[in-house]
Structure formats: C-alpha cells, structure tokens
UniProtKB/TrEMBL annotation:
Keyword Protease: yes
Name of the protein described by the UniProt record: Carboxyl-terminal processing protease
Family listed: Belongs to the peptidase S41A family.
Gene3D superfamilies: 2-enoyl-CoA Hydratase, Chain A, domain 1 (3.90.226.10), 2.30.42.10
Residue intervals of the PDZ domain: 248-336
Span list, region Disordered: 183-204
Residues of the signal peptide: 1-17
InterPro entries with a match to the protein in the record: ClpP/crotonase-like_dom_sf, PDZ, PDZ_sf, Peptidase_S41A, Tail-specific_protease, Tail_Prtase_C, TSP_N
PANTHER family: CARBOXYL-TERMINAL-PROCESSING PEPTIDASE 3, CHLOROPLASTIC (PTHR32060:SF22), TAIL-SPECIFIC PROTEASE (PTHR32060)
Length: 712
C-alpha cells in the first residue's frame, strides 16, 4: 500500500491529536486518579505494542519505582521494602481500579525516611574520616541489599559520604603541597594540614547535603506522583513519557528548535546524570570539554558550593543545571575515562545555525571530494517550504558539484534523527526512484514511502559516516542507501537502534469538561519503521559495511541500553532494485578493511576503547587516600597517553565553499566555527578512510552521463 507521504503524516497527526479512538467518559474528583485513568487508557488504546497489566507488570513497576526514588539505597531499610511487598503483585489491579494506595504508602514512608536521613548524615559528618584505613565502597548499588537497620544504614551513609569527600580532601591537600599555587576561588579554602583539609571536606559535604535536602523539601507531592506515573509509562518503552504541564511547555520549546541551558540531553544513572546527546551549537558543544558518556555528579551556581545530584531525580537535577541565558553553572563531572573535572559553562540559547547542514571540499593532491555534515533532520512542521534538511542538503550537493568534487561523504555521526519526510526526499537525491522506508502502525498494514522523482542529483561515489549516536531518521537513510548498495556505510559496529515513531497527545483533549486545569500530555510510541529489505532498525540499528572502532565501541549507548525497549522483528521486503552504478562493490569494502587492520591510529583508538570499558566496569572504589592517589595518577597517565589521538594528521586539506568565503568578510564568528570544524576534520581518521573509499569507488564507478540538476 503506497500513499502520498505528506498526506499520510497529516492524517496520522490529526487522528492522534484528536484522540479519535476515545469512546470513554473520564470523570474523577481526584486529579491524581483522573490522570492515572487517562494515561492508562491512552496507552492501552494508542500504544504500538501495549503491555498486559498483569503480575509481571506489577513487579516491574514496584521494583523500578523504588529504584527511581532511592537508587543508592540510603533511605529505605529492609523492613520498609518488606512492608511494601504486599503491593508487589497488586499494582496492576490498582491501576485497573484507579487506585493509588501503593504510591501513597511509599510516598509517606519516603518523607519519613528522608527526615531520618538528615539526622544520620549530620551524625556521620560530626566524626572525622580516617583516610589511612583500608576499606572500599561498591558503587554498583543495584546489587547491594537494603540495610537491615539504622546502624547498617548509617554505615552505608558513612562510606558514601567518605567517598564524596575524597575529591575535596585531595584538592585541599594539593594546595598544601603546592604552596606556590595561587588560590583564586574564594570557596576553595586552602588547608594547611591534613587535619584541616579533612575538616574542611566534611563541612563542604555537609553544606552540599543541606542544600540538597532544602531543594527536596521544596518539592510537592504532585512532583513525586509524576515520577510514579512515569514509572508506569516507562514500562511500555523508553520513548513513551508523561509531561506534566510545565514540562510539556519545555518540550514544545525544544521542538521549536530553541534550547536554553547547556545544550545536552541527560539520562538518569545511579551515579549522577549521564550525557547521552550534545546539541549542536549549545554551550557544551562550543566548550568541547564534555562528551557523551560523561556523568554529572555535582551542580554549582557560579562559584557557590555545588549540590551533589547523586540519587536525585533527573527532573530535579535538570532544574539545577538549567537556568537563564548568561548565567554560569559549575558541573563536577566524572569523565568517561573515570577522571573528575569541574567544568564551568555559561548558559545560552543553542545557536540554531549549527544544527543546519554545512559542507566543505576535501583536497588530496589533484583530487577533490566533498563532505556534508548534517547534525539532524530538521524541518518547520508549520511551513515545509521553509528551510529543511532535504532542501539544504540538495543545495550543498549542487554547490559541491559546481566545485568539481569527484566523490561525496555524508556525515551522519551524532545525528539523532528528526523529520521522516526529509529522509525520503533526501534519499531521492541519490537514487532514480523507489521505496525508502516502510512504516507499520498498530493493528494496520504497512505503508511504503517512496521517492517518485526519477531525477538523480548525485550519481557519483557516495560514503555515509555513522556512529553509535546516529539514530532514527539517520538510520532510515543509511539503511536505504545500504540496501540499494548506493553508498558504503562506514562507522561503528551498529547505529543507535531506534526504530520507533512517537506522537504527543495533550490529555485535556480527552475530556469534554475539566475542572483540574492543564493535565499535561503524553508522548506515545505509535509506529515502527522498517528498512526496505524488511528488517527493523529497532535494537540492531544499521550495521556498517566497514566497521571502524571508536572510543565508545565497548560502552552501551544505544537503544539496547535503554529501559524496556521494543524488540527487533521483520516484515516482508518492499519491491526495490539495487543500484548498479558500482563495479567491485565488495572489493572496495575488502580493501578498506585491510587498511584498517594496518592503521596505527585505529589500533590506538581500539586500545582506548578497551581501557574506557575497563574503567567503567570498575565498581569497587578504594577509600584509602594513598590508594586513591595512586589510581588517580594511573588514570592521569593513561589519559595523557591517549591524548596522542588528537595529534593525528590525515594530510587532507579542507576548504569552505565560495559563498561561505564571501560571508567570512562580514562574519568572523562563522569563519572561526568553520576553521575549527576543518581542523577537527583533518585529525579525523574516519573521514580519511572515507576519502580512501571514495577513491576506490571513483575507479569502479560506472559513469552514467551528466549529473542531473537539483530537484525542487
């Protein structure tokens, strides 16, 4: 079944937004119960693969909610959990009957235990720590049991707080050892003896905890209830999410392309907030010191004592990190390599321009190639005729053709996806016509989205670069070009693996009348997409034709690392004919693999990836200061060793196109951005190998006359 894509998308959005499947009346004087009723109904009727509300579902909600509110197991004791367990197999029945007894019981006990925790940490921090003692702490909290009593709980707090003070103690000892170092931070008081350093560290930690608990005290019951609702929602899949009214407003803002804050997407982890995406043009992107995989563990405001966010709800941590444009946030970060660093960032609005496609020419000897970098598949849903990814890439291709390039690289690394319509149009730039992607909705047949324009804008050699963070729309394009054998895909073993489509439903649209005000919205998974060969990209992603290791090779960053992802499956393939424009396609891949095996830079990248994996797997940490220093020094030496990666020089020359060169005379900031981009590209072994592959493809390419003009 083939349909006009724009028409199908419009019908789908209208149908979902109006909730045409609604045939139920919702009336409840209790806002929480009304919310639960609405959301579970939408999930049952609208989710692509709704879960059965049974005992297994109940157990999952039970365990996940406890983990969400007490991830480091420093509030509840074993007797609390035993008491809660009488609800372990009843939550599914409670949901069906719009009952929230389990939440009420857990919430009331949590408030009590948080009051107890304030007394415990005060007691612990009143006693000096002995850093000469040989003891350690396990930070794999999910494998630790709950404490049996208050004494055990206090011991757990003691170790956690001792661990929290180690870094502060170390920095103050460093000041003592380096008397020539000028202390410029008024909050970082230099200690003159180990005893003073230890005392200052405890005081600093106590101040941080006081601020943390003040922050938690400001939370209302409704804030905790949203966490409970999202625990239920999260059982369906990791991309289905309930937005409370204020969060829905922020989501709308982000969808409009304006991000105010640090420009990073975060994921909840027991040891802090993990950076899972860096938004092009934002403060983190511009600063270059943070990377995907780093974990934020403390947040400070412009030089003030930082607040430890370990164990804090992600929403609350984000509130601390976000802030008005121009203000400064200090982030204490555990880097991917295990080292600790403090990074100060000035909050800003993400520069939208850096999310747009950009291109450059690559010169090697007498040969010239082109590269197009596409950070995301952007579009203005209100006016498609406005700037969008497909038309922008088409313009860049035409400009590169005018420059006389002999091969093209499309860089989709770190591209998290975006508009499906732009993917179909963009794929059409490189093939004559045919299917691009298949989409399947709940309880319906598949729709095949085709490129119907027989013109080809670029029929020369094509390479697509991907990595573990290439997701969704990026995977559709890479998969289509791979299935057609139109391009060679170079990159990580597999891409992110997100093969689902979501839509946002305002809950107020479900009600005929509402006395409770704005109820927020739910983002719900409604479809799955499949490549034209019939396989899903869900979980498995796109497997590169040429696998090149990177520093994330052994770290789980994809859909498979998310909670409750939908599974992989396949449907019947679409009717398509592979591209016949290359001779010895397989030989080109084999030649590249041979080069990769002898590359010293690739070997160093592989070595770095294995070291990073080993560092992340180390969950037992010594609380002995001498051992701590030794391990820190080893990590520093290894980190320095791997800095050689940035010394690489591909000997390739990168140049901006003529139209940009003219802009540089009036825009020095744009010139600096492009110079930085070109400098990084020259150190990029993946781009270098893409050029090698283009050279092979150029030799083997069957020329089919002149290249067609730009598609409209």
């Amino acid at each position: 079944m083939k349909r006009n894509l724009a028409y199908v998308l419009l019908l789908m959005l209208v149908a979902v937004a109006s909730c045409s499947f609604t045939n139920k009346t919702f009336e409840n004087d209790d806002k929480d119960k009304l919310l639960l009723d609405l959301i579970t109904y939408v999930l049952e009727k609208g989710h692509y693969e709704p879960k059965v509300l049974n005992d297994e579902f109940s157990v999952n909600v039970f365990e996940d909610f406890i983990d969400v509110i007490d991830p480091t197991k420093r509030y509840f004791v074993a007797s609390d959990i035993a008491e809660f367990e009488k609800y372990k197999y009843q939550i599914d029945d409670e949901i069906k009957n719009t009952d929230i007894t389990f939440f009420n019981v857990v919430y009331e006990r949590l408030m009590q235990r948080m009051g107890d925790a304030k007394e415990i940490y005060k007691e612990v921090l009143a006693t000096p720590f002995d850093y000469s003692e040989n003891e350690s702490i396990s930070i794999k909290y999910d494998e630790e049991p709950f404490a049996d009593n208050r004494d055990e709980l206090k011991e757990r707090w003691r170790k956690q707080l001792k661990y929290a003070t180690l870094g502060t103690y170390d920095s103050k000892i460093v000041h003592m050892d380096n008397k020539d170092v000028e202390v410029t931070d008024e909050h970082d008081h230099a200690a003159h003896t180990p005893k003073e350093a230890e005392s200052e560290s405890r005081k600093s930690t106590e101040t941080t905890l006081d601020e943390f608990f003040d922050f938690v005290n400001d939370l209302e019951r409704k804030d905790w209830f949203v966490q409970y609702i999202n625990t239920i929602v999260d059982e369906f899949d990791p991309h289905t999410f309930y937005f409370a009214p204020e969060e829905k407003e922020k989501f709308d803002t982000s969808m409009s392309g304006k991000f105010e804050g640090i420009g990073a997407r975060l994921q909840k982890k027991s040891e802090g907030a993990k950076i899972v995406e860096i938004i092009s043009g934002g403060p983190v992107w511009r600063d270059q010191r943070l990377e995907v995989g780093d974990e934020i563990i403390k947040v400070g405001q412009n030089g003030q004592e930082p607040i430890n966010i370990v164990g804090m709800r992600l929403d609350d941590a984000i509130k601390l990190i976000k802030g008005a444009q121009g203000t400064i946030v200090d982030l204490t970060v555990r880097k991917v390599d295990g080292s600790l660093d403090v990074v100060s960032l000035t909050r800003d609005v993400v520069e939208l321009e850096e999310s747009y496609a950009k291109s450059a020419t690559i010169i090697r000897g007498q040969e010239k190639f082109g590269i197009i970098n596409l950070p995301k598949f952007y579009v203005d849903f209100n006016d498609y005729s406005e700037r969008n990814a497909a038309t922008d890439v088409a313009k860049e291709v035409e400009r590169l053709k005018e420059e006389g390039v002999e091969g093209l690289i499309l860089d989709l690394r770190d591209n998290g996806g975006g508009s499906l319509k732009t993917v179909v149009e963009m794929a059409g730039l490189f093939i004559k016509d045919g299917p691009i992607v298949q989409v399947q909705s709940k309880d319906k047949g598949k729709d095949v989205y085709d490129d119907k324009d027989e013109r080809i804008q670029w029929d020369g050699p094509l390479v697509i670069l991907v990595n573990e963070l290439s997701a969704s729309a990026s995977e559709i394009l890479a998969a289509a070009m791979q299935d057609y054998k139109r391009a060679i895909v170079i990159g990580s073993k597999q891409t992110f693996g997100k093969g689902t489509v979501q839509n946002v439903i305002p809950l107020n649209n479900m009600l005929r009348s509402n006395e409770h005000g704005d109820l927020g919205a739910i983002k719900i998974t409604t479809q799955k997409f499949y490549r034209i060969n019939g396989g899903s990209t869900q979980l498995e992603g796109v497997k590169s034709d040429i696998v090149v290791p990177d520093r994330y090779s052994y770290i789980d960053l994809g859909e498979r690392d998310q909670s409750n992802p939908l599974g992989w499956d396949k449907i019947s393939p679409a009717d398509y004919k592979p591209w016949d424009g290359y001779i010895n396609y397989e030989k080109t891949i084999a030649n590249s693999e041979k080069r990769m095996q002898t590359s010293q830079q690739i070997k160093l990248i592989e070595e770095n990836a294995k070291w990073l994996k080993a560092e992340q797997d180390e969950t037992e940490i010594s609380l002995n200061f001498e051992t701590y220093k030794e391990e820190k020094e080893k990590d520093k030496e290894q980190s320095e060793y791997f800095k050689r990666l940035t010394d690489y020089d591909s000997k390739l020359t990168f140049k901006s196109l003529g139209y940009e060169e003219q802009l540089f005379t009036k825009d020095s900031v744009l010139r600096e951005k492009r110079n930085r981009w070109h400098k990084n590209l020259a150190k990029d072994v993946y781009v270098e190998e893409a050029v090698n592959v283009l050279e092979d493809l150029k030799i083997n390419n069957i020329k089919q006359g002149k290249l067609a003009s730009v598609k409209n």
